[in-house]
Amino acid sequence: MRLLRVIGMGAGSPGHISHDAAAALASSDAVVALDKGDTKADLLELRRRILAAHAPDLPLLTVDDPSRDRHPAGAPEYHREVQRWHQERARLLADTITSSLSDGQTAAFLVWGDPSLYDSTLRIIERMQNLGLECRTEVYPGITAVQALTAAHRILINRIGEPIMVTTGRQLQKDLDTSDTTSRIKAVANTVVMLDGKTAWTHPGIDRDHTYMWWGAYVSTDKQVLRKGWVGDIADEVARTKAELRAEHGWIMDTYLLRYFDPDGDDQPETLMT
Question: Model's pTM, two decimal places?
Answer without folding.
Answer: 0.88
